[in-house]
Every structure is written in C-alpha cells, then in structure tokens.
Amino acid sequence: MKQTAIVYGSTSGNCENIANKIDAALGIDSANVFTASQLDASKIASFDNLLLGSSTWGSGDLQDEWYDGIEVIKSSDLSCKTVAVFGCGDSSGFSTTYCDAMGTLYEAAKAAGADMIGAVSTDGYTFDDSTAVADGKFVGLALDEDNESHLTDTRIAAWVAEIQPSL
Ligand SMILES: Cc1cc2nc3c(=O)[nH]c(=O)nc-3n(C[C@H](O)[C@H](O)[C@H](O)COP(=O)(O)O)c2cc1C
C-alpha cells in the first residue's frame, strides 16, 4: 500500500472513532490519521492516498474542523492521488441531508482531479435525500452512529475490502 492518510472532522467523537477503525482495518501508521484542521499543502504532498471523512452538522454542512481544510483540498492538484470519502450522520433525524458533508468532500476532491474510489450501494439505508448520492450510490462510506451503530463494523469491513486493492 502506498502512503495513505486518514483525515477527519469530528465534534463528539463519532467520525474520529470511525477514522480509527478504518485505520486499524487498513493497518495504517496511526501518525497518518489526523484531524482536518491539521491539513495543509505539505501534508497533501506527502501522501499518495487520502481517505477524507466528516460528520454532517447544521443542515448538511461540513463538520467545523473542515473549515480551512476544504479550501486546502480545493486549491490542491490531486490528479496523481487516489481519494475515498467517508462520513457519519443521522439518517432518521436529518433524513433530507443525510451525510451531505461526505458529498461536499467528494465534489471538492473530484474537482481537484483525484481518482475517486469507494462508492457504496444505498441498499439497506433508509433516508429521504442526500447530496452524497450520485448515480444511485453513495459516493463513499455512509455511517449512522445515532441509529445504526450495530452495522458500522460490518460496513467498514466491506468498504475497506473494496478499496484496499486500489490503495
Ligand atoms: C445540530 C445537529 C445538526 C446535525 N445535522 C445533520 C445533518 O444535516 N445531516 C446528518 O446526516 N446528520 C446531522 N447530524 C447528526 C451528526 O452528524 C451525527 O450525530 C454524527 O454522528 C456526529 O459525528 P461527530 O461526533 O463525529 O461529529 C446533526 C446533529 C446535530 C446535533
């Protein structure tokens, strides 16, 4: 596996726990797992693969730690990099903006030229709308620690198995 970073934004720890679980499943050095507030151009330059994660806040917004980080992504040339996105939200309480932040990360990385991997079927999820859905699939790994935490480990394992050969 090439140099891989996991970058996340998390307010109450859910997305952070998910990042750490993905880290453990991939066997990445824990030094390469850090918050989006620490993301800068030099960090991006030192990795081949980026796994970008955010919980969704407000009404479909990125988690706060992405405030500057999303601008770093937008201003980077990711054309030689592979990127996958993940996110957590509340598919019941925020059913019309479920995991929208993951869609925002996806669009920014895709526009910056990254090779995007890791789309996931929406089968088995219940929600009304999400900007993280494109062509009938989630653009990355959508998780719901508020209502479906019992499914998290299985969903992570399946996603990691799918993306690992491309990393
Ligand atoms: C005020 C508030 C707004 C939220 N807005 C959304 C939303 O628009 N879409 C969504 O999917 N989840 C939303 N959530 C749910 C959180 O994303 C969810 O609880 C998540 O697991 C928090 O992860 P974190 O601890 O990593 O920040 C919201 C939660 C709160 C309390």
UniProtKB/TrEMBL annotation:
<comment type="similarity">
    <text>Belongs to the flavodoxin family.</text>
</comment>
<keyword id="KW-0813">Transport</keyword>
<dbReference type="InterPro" id="IPR008254">
    <property type="entry name" value="Flavodoxin/NO_synth"/>
</dbReference>
<dbReference type="GO" id="GO:0009055">
    <property type="term" value="F:electron transfer activity"/>
</dbReference>
<protein>
    <recommendedName>
        <fullName>Flavodoxin</fullName>
    </recommendedName>
</protein>
<feature type="domain" description="Flavodoxin-like">
    <location>
        <begin position="4"/>
        <end position="164"/>
    </location>
</feature>
<keyword id="KW-0288">FMN</keyword>
<dbReference type="InterPro" id="IPR001094">
    <property type="entry name" value="Flavdoxin-like"/>
</dbReference>
<comment type="function">
    <text>Low-potential electron donor to a number of redox enzymes.</text>
</comment>
<dbReference type="InterPro" id="IPR029039">
    <property type="entry name" value="Flavoprotein-like_sf"/>
</dbReference>
<dbReference type="InterPro" id="IPR050619">
    <property type="entry name" value="Flavodoxin"/>
</dbReference>
<dbReference type="Pfam" id="PF00258">
    <property type="entry name" value="Flavodoxin_1"/>
</dbReference>
<dbReference type="InterPro" id="IPR010086">
    <property type="entry name" value="Flavodoxin_lc"/>
</dbReference>
<keyword id="KW-0249">Electron transport</keyword>
<dbReference type="GO" id="GO:0010181">
    <property type="term" value="F:FMN binding"/>
</dbReference>
<keyword id="KW-0285">Flavoprotein</keyword>
